[in-house]
Amino acid sequence: MTVTTSSARVAAATARPATRPPNRMRAWAVRAPLLPALVFMIVVTQLPFVATVVISFFHWNALYPNARHFAGTDNYRQVLTDPDLRASVWTTILLTVTVVLVSLVLGLGIALLLNRRFRGRSLLRTLLIAPFLLVPVAAALLWKHVLYNPEYGLFNGLLHYVGGPQPDWISNTPLLAVEASLIWQWTPFMMLILLAGLQSRDPEQLEAARVDGASDWQIFRHLTLPHLRRYLELGALLGSIYIVQNFDAVFTITSGGLGTANLPYTVYQSFYQAHENGLASAAGVLVVIGSIVIATFALRVVSSLFREEVSRA
Questions:
Q1: 16-20, 160-164, 205-209: least confident range
Q2: What is the average per-residue pLDDT within 157-183?
Q3: If DSSP states are collapsed to H, E and C, what string results for the chain?
């Protein structure tokens, strides 16, 4: 009996190495079609980023190429201490927080309305999604010329019809003008995420709460909001990733003037107007780092949502 067992173990041990190469070959066969895409992504994204990081440690003005020299962390120190650059960082934070919070609140309200059954709901939902599908530059041009223009814009036309004032919206409230256009464009995105969250609620739990005498406000406060917490976090994080990097609205509506220059626009000014390659690269690296931090939290929220759905299934 012992001899038979030991011989079986020896046979199994000698058989295992023979099965490993086919498994490895199968694994490589599965991964091989992804290699060209991986190489392409590295060449297009990672190598330029590494070059940007290297340039950010140099004093490098394109107008004086022979004066280029290593500067250490001077460019990063200037980005964090220069008053104009610090103002652009503050503008970026204020713009991102305002747009994300307002679009989340509006998106939640619209999602609650669209979650009810009524005639024409599908058509209305499609129309409400349309602003998010517009090209960002086209949306900014729409707000600048069709709505904000003091001479022929829609807002002043309505005010003129009721005998109201004729303000210059962009000059009087520049940052608010940029924020309004971004809120209009990002509210449908938040609405879609929150509507998906509303439709994933357990109907039996809602019915049990109504049978127990809970009001609509109590159901919303104690059941709906806790259920939507992950979806609210996901919408806030994804929106922040894109709005932190927003350039189109600022460039198109105000051209970065009147205190609306955010960090991406400051990078554009430093690189294309001042030709400060090193300073612009340092600011760009900080934008990328901030986006990576936000994206990390977003991926954690997405993975937790997937785990919850799997556990329910």
A1: 16-20
A2: 89
A3: CHHHHHHHHHHHHHHHHHHHHHHHHHHHHHHHHHHHHHHHHHHHHHHHHHHHHHHCCEECECCCHHHCEECCCHHHHHHHHCHHHHHHHHHHHHHHHHHHHHHHHHHHHHHHHHCCCCCCHHHHHHHHHHHHHCCHHHHHHHHHHHHCCCCCCHHHHHHHHCCCCCCCHHHHCHHHHHHHHHHHHHHHHHHHHHHHHHHCCCHHHHHHHHHCCCCHHHHHHHHHHHHHHHHHHHHHHHHHHHHHCCCHHHHHHHCCCCCCCCHHHHHHHHHHHCCEHHHHHHHHHHHHHHHHHHHHHHHHHHHHHHHHHHHHC
Q: Which amino acid is located at 27 in the chain? A: A
**What tokens were used for 26?**
């199968």
- Placement of tokens 């927003």 in the chain: 246
* Dihedral over alpha carbons 293, 294, 296, 299 (to 10 degrees): -170
Of the pLDDT bands very low, low, confident and very high (cuts 50, 70, 90), residue 310 is: low
